[in-house]
Amino acid sequence: MKEKEIVIWHEMDGAGDSSLKFIETICRELHEKENLSFRFVQMNLVPFTERLRHLDEQKEKPDVIFIAQDLVNMEGAHLSEVPERFGRYMAPKTWDSMKYKGVQRGVPYLQGNHAVIFYNKKYFDKRPESWDDIRAMRRRGVCPFSLDLTVQYWLLPFVYTIYGNPIKDGRVTITSENTGQVQRFLGDLLKEGTLRSYSAISTMLDKFIAGEIACMLNGEWLYEYLHQEMGEDVGISRLPRMGQKEMTGVSSSVGIAFPANSLEGEKKTELGVFLDYMLSEDVQTRWLTEHKRIPVNQKVLAHMDQLAVDENIKISCGQMEKNYFLINELCLSDLWQQGEKILKKVVENNAE
Q1: How confident is residue 64, by pLDDT bands cut at 50, 70 and 90?
Q2: Cα(222)–Cα(146) distance, integer angstroms
Q3: Claim: this prediction has a pTM higher than 0.90
Q4: Is 75 helix (H, G, I), strand (E, B) or coil?
Q5: Considering all CA atoms of the chain, what is the largest pairwise distance in Å, rounded to the nearest integer?
Q6: Given pLDDT bands bounded at 50, 70 and 90, which one contains residue 15?
């Protein structure tokens, strides 16, 4: 390894993950400005998390990883404690999102990371606001709505809308009555032909871009990719009302962490320069205006109205503000287990 070369591990989550290109651009700029050298190691999510959880067994260890906030619980990755000075760029709630057991184990650089409704404007005269708006697409000979029924995360808007916040005092308190409501709601959508399940990061995207799906529940982080593929035909809508009830979901952050205690090692100064640049107004503004992601820098957020931010991003931000904030409770694994049980029941009860 070259002296002072910063090794970055980044997981690749399908074709829709366009963030890596901009991160590579940022690193090239830092090479020119600060003479820092970077090397990327890219892999899919499963080997990415597996290797990090067993980092002691790896011959080469990364200096930097990009992760969703809930992955700071990977104790086997030996993530460095991050100095409080980097929290000055963002709101305290955002900064705290990457704490684990009271210790700051990462630095958020984007926020939101939430589910929205993407819709094809060719099928809708206005943004779909209710499930009746979506059901009406059955008359158009197109799949009205798609949701990935293999991944627990996509259930959260339904769970949180029907149940409210299921995490109370560090415990998941979902009851069988409430899980039954979620199962029945999704089951009814399947039976009536409103809902079809496809992989959120592959088949669903292909079918949506091809115009075979009118709208889908998917991650806001896909907007740049979808806009590149569809132009002005892609729209973002808030989650649809369930009867008279406003639908809500969860929001979180995406951050940078430092495995193998790299922030205390010989590259400490270089890694600090990297972080300051990632959180700077210039880079954070470009995340928003050029790459359609929601930054954490408070100065950028305060001037959003003066920037070239399109209406879809504003709708996405509005959904983020309505959502519950998903914090790193130890009981999150219980929430995923509950979600897996719900999905299993939905699929079993509606198998052809």
Answers
A1: very high
A2: 15
A3: yes
A4: helix
A5: 63
A6: low
Tokens 């992955």 label which residue?
A: 71
Q: Write down the residue that tokens 């920037």 correspond to.
A: 307
| Cα 202 to Cα 318: distance, rounded to the nearest angstrom | 27
Return all residues near 266 (Cβ < 8 A) that are at least 6 apart.
4
Q: How confident is the model at residue 3 (pLDDT cuts 50, 70, 90)?
A: low
- Residues 79, 77: Cα–Cα separation, whole Å: 6
Contact status, residue 69 vs residue 97, Cβ threshold 8 Å: yes
> Sorting pLDDT into bands at 50, 70 and 90, what band is 13?
low
Sort 62 into a burial class: Cβ within 10 Å, 0-12 / 13-18 / 19+.
buried
Q: Give me the percent of the chain exceeding a pLDDT of 90.
A: 76
Separation CA 341–CA 183 (nearest Å) = 10
Residue 351 pLDDT exceeds 80: no
Q: With beta carbons less than 8 A apart as the criterion, state whether 97 and 320 touch.
A: no
Q: Is the pLDDT reported for residue 1 higher than 60?
A: no
DSSP annotation of 294 reads: E
pLDDT digits (tens, 9 = 90+) for 150-160: 999 999 999 99
Pick the closest to residue 317 from 306, 326, 329, 305 (CA basis).
305
Helix (H/G/I), strand (E/B), else coil: 181: helix
DSSP letter string over 128-152?
Answer: --BHHHHHGGGGGTSEEEE--TT-G
Question: Residue 309 pLDDT > 80, yes or no?
Answer: yes
Report how far residue 327's alpha carbon sits from residue 350's, in angstroms, rounded to the nearest whole number. Answer: 33
Contact 297, 304 (CB under 8 A): no
Alpha helix positions (H), the chain: 19-34, 45-53, 92-96, 131-135, 156-163, 176-191, 203-209, 223-230, 268-278, 281-289, 298-302, 311-322, 332-349
Q: Which helix (H) or strand (E) holds 279?
A: none
